[in-house]
Model the fold of this input.
Amino acid sequence: MSDTYGKSVTLTIFGESHGPAVGATVTGLAPGVPVDMEFMRGQMEKRRAKGKISTSRTEADAVRVLSGVYRGAATGTALTLVIENTNTRSGDYTKTEELLRPGHADYTAHMKYGGHQDARGGGHFSGRLTAPVVAAGSIFTKLLQTKGVAIATHLAQCAGIDDAPFSGDPARLKEQLDALNAADFAVLDPLRARAMTQAIEAAAAEGDSVGGILETVVLGLPAGLGEPFFGSVESTLAALLFSIPAVKGVEFGLGFGFAGLTGSRANDAFRMQGTRVVTATNHNGGVNGGISNGMPLVLRTVVKPTPSIYKVQQTVDFAAKRNATLQISGRHDPCILHRARVVQDSLVAFGLADLCGQHFGTAWQEGTAWNMD
Amino acid sequence: MSDTYGKSVTLTIFGESHGPAVGATVTGLAPGVPVDMEFMRGQMEKRRAKGKISTSRTEADAVRVLSGVYRGAATGTALTLVIENTNTRSGDYTKTEELLRPGHADYTAHMKYGGHQDARGGGHFSGRLTAPVVAAGSIFTKLLQTKGVAIATHLAQCAGIDDAPFSGDPARLKEQLDALNAADFAVLDPLRARAMTQAIEAAAAEGDSVGGILETVVLGLPAGLGEPFFGSVESTLAALLFSIPAVKGVEFGLGFGFAGLTGSRANDAFRMQGTRVVTATNHNGGVNGGISNGMPLVLRTVVKPTPSIYKVQQTVDFAAKRNATLQISGRHDPCILHRARVVQDSLVAFGLADLCGQHFGTAWQEGTAWNMD
Amino acid sequence: MSDTYGKSVTLTIFGESHGPAVGATVTGLAPGVPVDMEFMRGQMEKRRAKGKISTSRTEADAVRVLSGVYRGAATGTALTLVIENTNTRSGDYTKTEELLRPGHADYTAHMKYGGHQDARGGGHFSGRLTAPVVAAGSIFTKLLQTKGVAIATHLAQCAGIDDAPFSGDPARLKEQLDALNAADFAVLDPLRARAMTQAIEAAAAEGDSVGGILETVVLGLPAGLGEPFFGSVESTLAALLFSIPAVKGVEFGLGFGFAGLTGSRANDAFRMQGTRVVTATNHNGGVNGGISNGMPLVLRTVVKPTPSIYKVQQTVDFAAKRNATLQISGRHDPCILHRARVVQDSLVAFGLADLCGQHFGTAWQEGTAWNMD
Amino acid sequence: MSDTYGKSVTLTIFGESHGPAVGATVTGLAPGVPVDMEFMRGQMEKRRAKGKISTSRTEADAVRVLSGVYRGAATGTALTLVIENTNTRSGDYTKTEELLRPGHADYTAHMKYGGHQDARGGGHFSGRLTAPVVAAGSIFTKLLQTKGVAIATHLAQCAGIDDAPFSGDPARLKEQLDALNAADFAVLDPLRARAMTQAIEAAAAEGDSVGGILETVVLGLPAGLGEPFFGSVESTLAALLFSIPAVKGVEFGLGFGFAGLTGSRANDAFRMQGTRVVTATNHNGGVNGGISNGMPLVLRTVVKPTPSIYKVQQTVDFAAKRNATLQISGRHDPCILHRARVVQDSLVAFGLADLCGQHFGTAWQEGTAWNMD
Done:
């Protein structure tokens, strides 16, 4: 069940880049959970390709709900949504079908599927599969919002340029999350946004691409989610985040920054804040022993530069089994971070909703916000 | 099933640090797979506490097999192994039971289990649960060895001191893996080993602790393992690795080093090597599109400094719901990296065995090495 | 994941009777498995409503494959197929929406989904959901055929009329299976077919309905499939068969006929047949200790009479919470056995394919028939 | 994961009849659920062999809890319990190890495990594995009792002799369930008990064995449990019940008695009873559309006669691959129904607890009885 993830709620994705459609099925939704198509469209819009910093392949990405929704709310049975592929130009791929694209899954798909894969446009490996992830994820993002949980992601680094850090002040932090969710290009400092955009355009002009780091903060999460060991918050979210094509690293809190610290520097002291237990610092990024502690959840992923570049590359002709060169044509993203951030939000929302369901049962989806005090 | 992981093979762990025993159940082993108790003992020995750089609590860690083994081989039905807890001194914990230890799961366990958890020694959250992980993992490590797959981990960084890097020469690399697996303190450069040990002892002398980075290399893995998206090699291994207490980040290949690169620098060119397809560089750490490509698998985890330190710390008395100070007594590790590396090896072995089973079926466990040419 | 079943292969179904579409997703197919759309159409045709013995709601039931098939074969990634609902007359239901139909899921759906269910036409509980089961199942039925495994079901009893029993002669038995699979109304004795048809029509004329027993035989199955306890052949197939609406009992071999026997009468003696081990009798229906023994698999389900009848019935008005009477209108089947038999075939095929995958790995789907000698 | 079952709670069993121990692991228990060792012992006692109607192998069956229980209650982490095998006489089996016992799993185990199975005493296929099922099941039986759910099973038929039927009067029915749970030999009519016992002894005297039917009634179950299709109450319980060695059929409500009825006879009319919806009859055995309707759950299994008989039987020498005769020695049950009924209770309790957990979340395990009005 490699295309399915989740325990209390599940997400299954299907489709190929140049097949008839891509889509997703969600199970485990509580009956009555609102399915807000307007909010879904807004989330899809964040993922859409726009301007010179994205591919020129644009899809309407109209989402059709086939099942599981009645009168605007989840019925509680399997919810399937489908997005037709309309703007496919498979011809772009045929001439290079046997020339393995470096950094892509062409070779590994061959080794796994023995030639039966739909190789056009990356097939099932395509970033296009993240469209149904965002559509389905929007239901969970919205659901968590109604519980007072806010999620947002910024481009913490892009093309070597750092964004400003998140604020340490809770009220300001919440404003930053809201601003990111309203923004087209999700950075905290508008000046850095311009610098990043210029760097992406410069790379694109050279037929090259750039990578970076996506940092996500979640506010309002109750303590007690997750499990020791295999079902930890980190394990659950990392498995989802590593499913984003191009993500090659995931860290929580200080992450790799922990390596050089001593325990006395790294530990987060507990303190009472009124009747709530909080930590004086948040080095652990909201997770202790695999379980949420009520502090902001902080995680980062590294997104490698898009492997589709227009420069001439050395590769192998898999049919002829000999060395060859490749120059990729077609329509590609010089950078995917600004589109991928809503994918990251969506997977985090899904993963947290699954953990909530495991902890609180289906009933958590009903009613109003948690009382955390 | 938060204590269970795996699809074609499963691993379930149970037990509490100061309960009667800890143990593990493995399902999905092919009938006839050898269970080498001598090899298991050797792996357990690597995990044992030794010298001034470890806790003074030592356990015999004798593994008793309750089921699933007959005449030295797996029967194919559930294999359960148990390790009795013999050297427990719960008294060390009672006086501070309500004083939440910073960096530990005391608070989150309270929030998750509502006071019903066995809090003594961390209970189910204890690093002691990694003992059955190593015992069970030894079966998979050995099994992969018979297929020509070698796994080894070194302390790439400890207490701020870097080890030498792995060799780029395949023959030399294999020697390095063998040496690491024969070593007590797994580093590539003996001089760095001495420096690390001294740094750990110095931290211990101050009642403090240190962290670092564990880097694992796997040789001999066939191409084609793993799945696009949720079942990727990275997702599968990361979920396992994040279940190691103290791991706060996981990366593959260049990992976070990808952030600043361009696509033209980051892509691994394909080349023919005889009849095999290889990559000229291995920035992707042996994984493309979530699937193994036959190159060495390279991954790193960051291990935060042990949270149990002897310095006075600020915390909260959870019963009285007020601020307090805590000075931890008991027996604790000033560094766990040298013990944790075999836990990492074990979980990687288990995860890869699971992926092999998904790809090749149970039959992969039988017969001899893959012919990769 | 209540809408998903399976381990090595999975089947997920979605949709509501009067929603936009019904469909299914299959995962775990080996790359290259043929997807024979012509065979699929034939199987769908067996399930279609026909004549006076079926509902007058007829659907074209055109199956559209959205993903997972390329050049006529499975890619190995999620295969989703969709059947649009075209002939819906929801008006038939609105006036009785709150009058619970006896024998149906109207009441239990209310209690489970709290009013959020799509109640039109039974919604997700509708027999219409068996359409995608047959479509998806056809892939497995065909696959097993290529391995030499034949599956067929007859109406062993319908409206109180018994069909002739299966032949004890293997060659004749195989002919009977082929004949059943070619027949519209699957009985072994044509005279009984006429009697059953007349009995169904007579019941229909009175606004009533009939039930019966479906008996399935599977030939050519290798020994060694299934597991002791929870994964037994019986457990796996029963869980699937009880998901057919109206099935209230499942038995294997002599089934409930075992109750009055002694061990000496019930045991199947083993005998050598050339180099193969066979049993002299087949009271156990091809399964010992939960595992297939290579003899014909024999199972029976009881299908209760269709609860939708046109007679006046006593019931409850769920909105008003008071007793009421109900006279069902709309279009309904006076008997579903002749349509359900291909649903039973399909679920048996799916269940066996899953067990084969667990035993042989994905690779079993490739190549040719097993050599059972 | 063939040795594991369940979604919200899981049950894993391990062990072989003549290995060191048998045991079980339970996950998903809510923290704080009482683990009543006295009640567990009582349930184990019901399963113990007693008198001439059972095997002379008796085991102390002392249950040792290794993990997951602290201060008399579940911690919420994996609960493992172990029962040592003490009274093993493997010598009884060695001489016939290659003579396949008819009706047993000797042959199929060979075909599945290729000779690596522990064949002594049936190994993992042994009825001895039901001991940990009862031990673990007692936790769920007790838990359901505290919610007002009562479960009991009687020998509805044994050796061809029918017990009296359950009463249709609710108050009397509850008394009957209590009496069954207090009885050693679970029948409703003491005269039939004597007749059955005599018939078992008569069969035993001839070296033969008998079978029968176990009927279970569950009172107090809330409406709304289970799922349409694959997760139906019937699917969930049937998969568990078919894992009992010797069960060859499962039916709900009228079961196979539905075959000859018309819809107008079979349908259960809904009626108001105060503010509750009930059915006038209970032909569907408490389940509509796969979901509990609040009426008594009624199910029956058929238990084939114990295959271990002392008469000379025809069989095959699997090593020599030739026909042979077999006379079984050792210690065996001439009838298992009176011991198996508590196994059936235990599995039903486990299955219902799992369905409750899926519907209500873990929280259902806490607090008191449901308010069903």
About this structure: The longest strand of chain A covers residues 150-158. The mean pLDDT of chain A is 92. The interface with chain C takes residues 1-4, 6, 10, 12-16, 19-23, 25, 27-28, 31-32, 64-68, 70, 73-80, 82, 112-118, 123-124 of chain A (CB under 8 Å). The two ends of chain A are 40 Å apart (CA to CA).
